[in-house]
Amino acid sequence: MFYKDTTLKFRKMIEEGATGVQLSDALLSDIKRTSGLASRYSQDMDIEEPVVDLETQIRGRYEQEFKESTDYLSAKERMLASLNMPEDILKSKTISIGSGPEPKLNKGLGSRPEKDEGQSIADFIASFEQSEEKESYEAYWDEKQYSIGFGTKAKSKDEVITHEEALSRLQDAAQKAREDVVDVAEKFGYDWNEDQIKALTSFTYNLGRTNLLRLTENGTRGTEEISDMILEYDKVGNTVKPGLTERRQAEYELFSAGSIVD
Q1: pLDDT tens per residue across span 244-254
Q2: Which one of 20, 133, 146, 159 counts the least CB within 10 Å of its CB?
Q3: How many Å separate Cα 89 from the centre of its chain?
Q4: What angle (nearest 5°) sits at the alpha carbon of residue 105, between those of residues 259 and 99?
Q5: Which residue ranges form the domains of the chain, and what is each CATH number?
Q6: Taking the CA atoms of the chain, what radius of gyration do you get in angstroms?
Q7: Residues 167, 160: contact at Cβ < 8 Å?
C-alpha cells in the first residue's frame, strides 16, 4: 500500500508537469524517510541470498512501480485494441520461444501453458516469465534482485541483453534447476517421472534449491504431500501474488498428473 500511494503521488506530479529533477528529489527524499520501513520489509522476505543495501532495494521497488504507473495508458490502449479483435484471432495469439521447430506458448504473463507432451522444461518456464518475444530485454527489479529476460539474475541494474542471450540464460538456468531436482530425487530416493521433474524444475527455477529442500522437508515428505504443499508457495512475505498462485497451480497440476499416470 505504501509503494502504491507513493506511485500515485509521482503520477500526480507528472500530470502537473513536474521535471525529472523534481521527481528525482522526491524519490531521494522518500528513500531517506522510509529506510526503516524498507528494513522491516526486507526482513519479511523469504530470500536465499544476502539482501542488497536498503537504498538499492527501495530504488528498485520504486523503479518497477514507477515503470508500471507510466505504462498504464499504453497498457489500457493495448487492452482496448485487443477487445476489438475477432475471437478466432484472440484465441490464436501465441508466441514462439527457441530455435528450430518452435513450440507455442500461451500469451499472457503468468498464463498457464496447455499440457503439451513435447513441451520442454524451458518453454514451460518461459510461459510464466514473458508475455511476448522482444528484440532486447532490460533489467528489472524482481522483489529481491535485478532480473532480466526470462527471470534470470541480471549482472547489473542497467544491463540490456538480446533475445538470443535471454534464451541462452534461460536454458542454462533451467538445466541447473533440473540438475538440482534430480540430485534431490537421488539423494532422498524419490521416484519422480519426467512430468514431476518438469514441475519441480519450474518450482526450483523460480524459488531456488533451498525452497525445493523446504518443499520436500529434506526428503521426509511423501510425493502426495509434496504435491499439496506446492500450492503454499505463492507469497512474497505474507502477501499472496496472483502470478505465483497461477504458476504454482500449473506446477501442481503437472506434478499431480504425473503421479496419477504412474
Answers
A1: 999 999 999 99
A2: 20
A3: 27
A4: 105
A5: 2-75 (no CATH), 93-261 (1.10.530.40)
A6: 20
A7: no
